[in-house]
Amino acid sequence: MVSTRNKTDVWLVGHRTESLSGCKLPTARQVLQRMLYLHSADGKKMDRDVRESCRLTVQECFVLWGKAGVPVQEERNATDVVLRLHKEWTDLKKDKNKVGETYEARRKAFTHKLDGTLDFAHYQAERIMEEQLRREKDEKAKAAIVEDLEFYRLQKKSREGYMARVDVNVVKKIEKQKRVLEKKEATKRKYEAAKKQVDAYFEKVELASDNEAEAELNDNNNNDTDFNTEDNPKRKFKKEIAVPTLCAALDRNALSKRGAARVVLETAKALGEDPSNIKLSPNTLYRRRQVNRTETEINFLANFPSSGPIVLHFDGKLLPNDA
Q: Name one GO molecular function term (predicted).
């Protein structure tokens, strides 16, 4: 037996709807009709709870809001909006057989609310759209944002205006900007992950080097005789790589402690050296650079000619007066 429209009508809401469509933002009545259809179509209860039905309804509503170009709130918050609307309807339904001015006023107010737009917009939607308008340089895109903003304001008040066909070029531009932002975020995450791995490695190397230096100092204090590597084959000395020329090159390029250690590490790998056999502690390299700078200064002053004529070379057009 086919059910009639009167039998399928829901109290105060109307008939359940199978889909959301139209050229305007959905009203509270349309949202509730769609939610009730998803939860209980033709009086048959579906295998989903009320919240799940509200969530599916919100997803369909977001499609229409996306066509309008209005920023929306998070899905879970919008789901709570539909849940509150459904609860308000169920509370009224419990008293549908009661009469009186109070009950009639509540029903009338709820019916008036159903005919208005159910707002799923972000709480700062207008500010976000105005900010997009200031940043946008394309005149056509600016006009589209202005239309979307005006349409949203009218839909909240008098529900005037209709959504026209979506501008394909504007949609493509927005999608491209979204892909660029996602790519930048992915690159940033990869860089941060790689940086953490490198920092963790050098912290491990630095700690191991400091422990070896402390152990070597203790051995020197405890043993009066020279250490013989042939008697203790397990003892392995690391190769000293911080030669004066390398230290000078690192200072010349103003590399930090960790930056210098990274350069030396990758250079050693490229030359086929085993990093575990080289002193790569950032602190060790920095101390060698300090010693090299001091020795270079002493040697320069010792070898500087103190007698005879001195020629001053100046790179520039004007020579300072104090020269």
A: ligase activity
